[in-house]
Amino acid sequence: MAKKASKKEEPKKVQKAAPDPLFPARPRNFNIGGDIRPAGRDLSRFVKWPRYVRLQRQRAVLYQRLKVPPSINQFTKTINRNEAQTVFTLFNKYRALTKAAKKQRIKEAAAATAEGKDAPAKAPHMIKFGLKHITWLVEQKKASLVLIANDVDPIELVMWLPALCRKMKVPFMIVKDKARLGALCSMKTASAVALTTVSKEDQSQLELLQGLAKEKFNDNPELVRKWGGGIMGLKTQAKLDKRAKDLAAEEAKKLATLGRA
User: Fold this and answer.
1) Which of 41, 57, 205, 261 is the 20 to 30 A CA-CA neighbour of 123?
2) pLDDT tens digits in sequence order for the chain, 261 residues long
3) What's the rounded Cα separation, in Å, for the pair 76 and 114?
4) In sequence order, what are the residues at sequence separation of 6 or more whose Cβ sits closer than 8 angstroms to the Cβ of residue 112?
């Protein structure tokens, strides 16, 4: 007998519900790194920064809030970028010798003297560094131009140096920053550097920079008079403005009342 053909039942198609336009589905991604935070949201203000970062930011805010006396506030008035480029171009020509190069020069001079030959010429023109050495050069009026870093910490190390330069009439400039001055001396940082002499071809450039230093620093009365700081935060400024408006409105009411009476 022939087998009867069995009719297979076709599965019923389930109709999917149309997505609601008011509440679209947002599938979450729980792969590695996908569940940390929404992309594009800035959470930097919630980051626990290292202690040194917090301290330097708090110090910067305190310098804005507190009244800063002129002797410290003058270190915020540095020369601009173009002037700094001119100054450092000149000082780069007279970079201090490294320890190895200086040792080699002394050794060659000693060997020449021992052999009875003519002693080599004096040390070439070079910048001087070290606070004690620069202080002595300024006191003896041997320094031609002094550069002082603006970010020395603690500031008391160099706070008195501008006053000494003014008294001895030695041109000085306040520049950014101690690392840049340190590079001139083959060191990590330097608080101050000075030039005593330069070659003949750079003498006119040195005189030009001396005139600039006297105009902006030595003979500038604003630096020794102007206080710094005293800048309040945005919330405090808004509060003080509101208080001033309320007082002005109250005063206007009083004047109006007196005028009617």
Assistant:
1) 205
2) 555 666 666 667 777 778 888 888 877 777 766 666 666 777 777 788 899 999 999 988 988 899 989 999 999 999 999 999 999 999 999 987 777 877 887 888 788 888 877 766 666 788 999 999 999 999 999 999 999 999 998 899 999 999 999 999 999 999 998 999 999 988 999 999 999 999 999 999 999 999 999 999 999 999 999 998 889 999 999 999 999 999 999 999 988 888 764
3) 52
4) 118, 119, 120
Q: What is the dihedral angle through the alpha carbons of 241, 243, 248, 252, rounded to the nearest 10 degrees?
A: 140
Task: Please check whether residue 78 is in contact with residue 174, taking contact to mean a CB–CB distance below 8 angstroms.
Answer: yes
Cis peptide before 38 (omega within 30 of 0): no
45 token code pair: 């203000």
